[in-house]
Amino acid sequence: MKNALLIVDVQNDFCPGGSLAVSDGDKIVPIINQIEDKFDFVISSQDWHPAATVHFEKWPPHCIAGTFGADFHPNLITDKIDLKLLKGTGNKDDGYSAFEATNVSLIDYLHENQIQDLYVCGLATDYCVKATVLDAIENGFHTYVITDAVAAVNIEKGDDRKALNEMYLKGCTLIESDEI
Ligand code: VGL
Ligand code: ZN
What is the whole-number distance in angstroms between the Cα of residue 22 and the centre of ligand 1? Predict the structure, then answer.
């Protein structure tokens, strides 16, 4: 059985200076770069929204398809990425989970490549990371979240801890990057 690193939404709009910036969103980039080599596969997801979507009734416009804001953080090493997922591409869907990617089926890719262990990092802990992790668990994957390689929106103080706790209680293993 194989493993994969799943890098969720490490995009300019979620990093400092972006339209939906997560504080310290950029701090995780060197950590992710350091561990990419440890996995059989590296998979990324990107929020990839149309300019008009119901999603922007809940959030400031961000990660509009093809814009700078939707690009990966410039320091993220992207040449090792085997599969790039795009999500939230419809005008009625939030697309929080990488399992909702519309350009390719994540679940089919994982099955075809005998990937059983999924290590999730990226942005944001309390939205897209959480949604992805919960879907992964529901689909039967051994799921890990790399706690020093995620960062949260934290609309309410403590949302990050709440999210990590929820993932843990559903069966996700919490690990740090130096334990991999
Ligand atoms: C996200 C809010 C809105 C995320 C995406 O990537 O966690 N959060 N769209
Ligand atoms: Zn979004």
Answer: 10
